[in-house]
Specification:
OB fold (Dihydrolipoamide Acetyltransferase, E2P); alpha+beta; 3 helices; 163 residues; elongated; five-stranded antiparallel beta sheet; 2 domains
């Protein structure tokens, strides 16, 4: 075993922390075995939890996709917000659309550079609250549902192999 310098956040301290959580005995167990034991114990549960989260949000978005009504909106302007945490500028497209003769202006739920001022965009709106809109693309829900299913499947396989 290599002895590393004792820095507060050194690899050695991280390994010892994982050994304590996983129940490994640092004197008798090898580091690789202890890390694998930690990952086997908690990794599958984390994968299943992440999968449930992705699946849940993908299902909500897909239900919205099928229950919302379609219309077209026009990008009328952009607003930019400065994100102090990531130190980046987040642009948001403002769109205008009409529902039952009434005009609405609201932020688009996603931004890409293909949305320029004057561009017509297909959107879906909530018939009970036309201010709630999503872009008329089913790609994001499919990705969320697919990734969530994959995480849950991987977690279940991991649990089955643990026994």
């Amino acid at each position: 075993m290599t002895i590393l310098p004792d820095y507060p956040y050194s690899l050695q301290n991280l390994i010892q922390y994982k050994q304590i959580i996983s129940g490994c005995d640092p004197e008798n167990d090898e580091e690789f075995y202890c890390m694998n034991r930690f990952i086997n114990r908690y990794g599958t549960l984390i994968a299943i939890a992440a999968g449930i989260m992705f699946l849940f949000f993908g299902m909500i978005r897909s239900v919205s996709f099928f229950t919302y009504r379609s219309t077209e909106a026009v990008v009328i302007s952009y607003e930019e917000e400065y994100d102090t945490v990531n130190e980046t500028v987040e642009p948001t497209a403002i769109v205008e659309y009409e529902v039952d003769g009434k005009r609405y202006e609201t932020e688009l739920d996603d931004y890409t550079q293909k949305y320029y001022v004057g561009k017509t965009v297909k959107i879906k709106y909530d018939p009970n609250d036309p201010q709630k809109i999503i872009t008329a693309s089913f790609v994001l829900p499919l990705i969320q549902i697919g990734f969530g299913s994959l995480c849950i499947f991987g977690g279940i396989v991991g649990l089955a192999n643990r026994r």
